[in-house]
Amino acid sequence: KNKRSRRKSFEIIRTSIHFTMISSSFVRSLGNARKISVPTFRNNVTKSQIKLHPQKVSSKGFASKADKDGIKLEKVLAYPGEKSYFEDKFRFHTTKEILPTYRIMDEEGRILNSEEDPKLDKDTVVTMYQHMLTLNAMDTVLYDVQRQGRISFYMTNFGEEATHLGSAAALKMEDTIFAQYREAGVFLWRGFTLDEFMNQCYSNSQDYGKGRQMPVHYGSRKLNIQTISSPLATQIPQATGSAYAQKMAKSGNCTVCYFGEGAASEGDFHAAINFAATLETPSVFFCRNNRWAISTPSTEQYRGDAIAGRGISYGVDTIRVDGNDVFAVYNATKAARKKAVEENKPVLIEAMTYRISHHSTSDDSTRYRTSAEIEIWKTKHEPVKRLQKYLTSKGWWTEEQDKNFKSSVRKDVLAALKRAEAVKKPHPDECFTDVYDQLPPNLIEQREEMRQHLKKYPQNYPIDQHLS
User: Fold this and answer.
1) 3 state SS of 295
2) What is the C-alpha separation between 26 and 163, in angstroms, rounded?
3) Closest CA to 168 of 113, 127, 117
């Protein structure tokens, strides 16, 4: 019995020695660390390195640096994934660096750094500008139409046109887009027609959503743009899931998600960007920081370095750009897409812009901001005028062309409006379609109840305006 006990004790001691040797080897390997690569995403994609000092190994599970008396001056954490160190001085930490705003073209349409000029050809830049003018014409007409009671709701895009066209031009049609509700220029660039805009806003039978969505809630399977939904920020985690699917399928494409700085205050943003970082998805998060979340100014929404600061804290490569500089937006989006697709890494773009218009037709922004503030942005920083000055300086656009195009595109908008008004509304039964493959009994009962109600009170409903 004593022999068995001694043999068992010996086995335990031998096992302990074995694990001690393994642990010592592990700790020694930590002491050999010299560099940690830390990617940054600023004006250009660059890499910097943090150098660690030569380490002496302690038996406490961390590497340490010692002076000549053997007193430990620094202890670098050895836990997996950690990049910190111990210090014996108490202090609170705050943001030390404010990220710069990347810009190529100033308010006068002048290129500030020729090396950063994307050197887009004449046709591309002219098309960008024409889409901006088309967007302005459509916004002006549909805003007035809503005020006349001919459509129920509308949201304009004044002041943010460069964020739309600059980003859309840098993407490929195979890239999936999740928009919020102020990205009509992205739809225009991909080929969404004036008739498609009008059909959706009028909720007629040619509307892809069959009249079941609010106006400006566009979507197009053909153009690879997911349908816009009203709940704020829900598209952000959905976009992360889409990008993860693209990664798993090795499609070679990315998912681009647009949202405002107000939406970034929702929990969905934080969950989505953290999932994207940890799952390493080909995502491009595009934040339009237009300074106002309806009536809440950005000064009341955060205390850190705006939205870009959050990207870095989540380990996501980040860049802040002048959102009214269409070329800066183009360069940033192009580089972000390349990084997302080639490295399977998410990127956050914060485009600094300004919402010149009211939030929507349900809003009067003069109740919470001054007309003088709006006028400054409208006259000094407005992106459409900036691009016009660039085109004029290049000799690619004249005042006469500008006048003629504005007149022509307004007529096109009014013609599309007239066509949409003439199209009948969807059949009332469409309220019950496109959810279930086969209608369940309760919905069949509700549909029959609706039919009987309309039959009994025809004078109360404009049935003649709907398909029969």
Assistant:
1) coil
2) 50
3) 127
Segments of 33-94 assigned E as strands: 35-41, 45-51, 56-57, 63-66, 72-76, 85-86
| HSE, side-chain direction, 13 A CA sphere, residue 53 | 14
Distance CA(308)–CA(311), nearest Å, equals 5
pLDDT tens profile 398-430: 999 999 999 999 999 999 999 999 999 999 999
Q: Amino acid identity of 119? A: K
Q: How far apart, in whole angstroms, are the C-alpha atoms of residue 249 and residue 246?
A: 5
Task: Give the Å distances, CA to CA, from 7 to 4, 10, 15, 32, 201.
Answer: 5, 5, 12, 38, 85
The rounded distance, in Å, linking the Cα atoms of 388 and 384 is 6
d(CA 319, CA 102): 8
| Contact assessment for residue 194 and residue 212, using Cβ atoms and an 8 Å cutoff | no
Alpha-carbon gap, residue 34 to 61, rounded angstroms: 17
* 337 token code pair: 């897409």
To the nearest 10°, report the CA torsion of 58, 62, 66, 72: -100
Contact 311, 348 (CB under 8 A): yes
Task: Dump strand ranges (E) for 343-452.
Answer: 347-352
Give the length of the chain.
Answer: 468
- pLDDT, tens digit, 9 for 90 and up, residues 74-131: 555 566 666 777 888 999 988 778 999 999 999 999 999 999 999 999 999 999 999 9
